[in-house]
TrEMBL record:
Signal peptide stretch: none
Name of protein: ABC transporter permease
UniProt xrefs under PANTHER family: INNER MEMBRANE ABC TRANSPORTER PERMEASE PROTEIN YDCV
Protein's membrane topology: Multi-pass membrane protein
Organism: Pseudomonas quercus
Domain of life (superkingdom): Bacteria
Transmembrane regions: 65-94, 106-126, 138-156, 195-217, 237-257
Keyword field contains Mitochondrion: no
């Protein structure tokens, strides 16, 4: 059977979508080209191409340290979120399903307060005294934990509803499994891909966080976004290489999360 010919309306819609895509892509393409340019001032195109800015970036100890700090803080916050949220969600959905509505409201409270306001309060609370943590990664891990909570909670909650947790647990126990065995060997494997997607997307969001990192730790525990802000007065080519490297790192994480989401049964 011959394929239907595209209508003028569909062609118009495709043209609009591609035009918007190109408009959004142009600044990124310009930044990429500038990061590869030897010099680019009074000409339409750069006078030459080079990878020296990327070499300078990825051999800079300060950049590698900031990159490692961001990875450590984000992974620590996500690990804490999973360890605390996963058992809580299991208990709520299996034993107290009526509490799900209340949990949905409580989990969104971190977004009710702007990050600048939260940072001022945290500076007052943890700036001195027995719990002085400003300037350390621990205060960032705590902040990022609260920021990641809504993403991880909603993703896992939707997954638990999709697999029908109560029926799955009851069926496993009827077959002789203990509650711990049913949770570990039956429920958790069904949550694996959904959990990975939530973690990757949350990581992409936290990796670009700037306000908490800049106000609570600054250069005392420099993260990638703080490093990018502090290097704003350096070479434009170097900064462009930094932005492109950051963009492609986040793009790869998003691509992996999308692939996992498509492969979910």
């Amino acid at each position: 059977m011959a394929a239907a010919k595209p209508t003028p309306a569909s062609l118009y819609h495709r043209l609009v979508v591609w035009a918007l895509f190109l408009i959004l892509l142009l600044p990124l393409a310009g930044t990429l080209l500038y990061s590869l340019a030897t010099s680019w001032s009074a000409t339409l195109l750069p006078s030459g191409l080079t990878f020296k800015w990327y070499v300078a970036l990825w051999t800079d100890p300060r950049f590698l340290t900031a990159f490692g700090h961001s990875l450590l803080v984000c992974l620590g916050a996500l690990l804490l979120a999973v360890v605390l949220i996963l058992p809580l969600l299991f208990v709520v959905h299996y034993h107290f399903p009526r509490l799900d509505g209340l949990m949905n409201m409580l989990i969104l409270l971190p977004f009710a307060v702007p990050p600048v306001v939260s940072s001022v309060g945290l500076l007052q609370l943890y700036g001195s005294g027995p719990l002085a943590m400003t300037g350390t990664p621990w205060v960032l891990i705590g902040c990022y934990f609260t920021v990641a909570l809504p993403f991880i909670y909603r993703a896992i909650s939707n997954n638990l509803q999709a697999i029908n947790l109560r029926d799955l647990m009851d069926a496993a126990q009827l077959l002789g499994a203990s509650p711990w065995q049913a949770a570990w060997q039956v429920v958790l494997p069904n949550l694996r891909k959904g959990l990975m997607v939530a973690l990757l997307l949350s990581f992409s969001f936290l990796f670009g966080e700037f306000v908490f990192a800049n106000l609570l730790v600054g250069t005392r525990y420099e993260t990638l976004q703080v490093y990018l802000n502090n290097m704003r007065n350096s070479s434009g080519h170097f900064n462009s290489a930094l932005v492109i490297s950051y963009f492609f790192f986040v793009l790869m994480l998003t691509w992996v999360a999308t692939r996992l989401n498509k492969e979910r049964p």
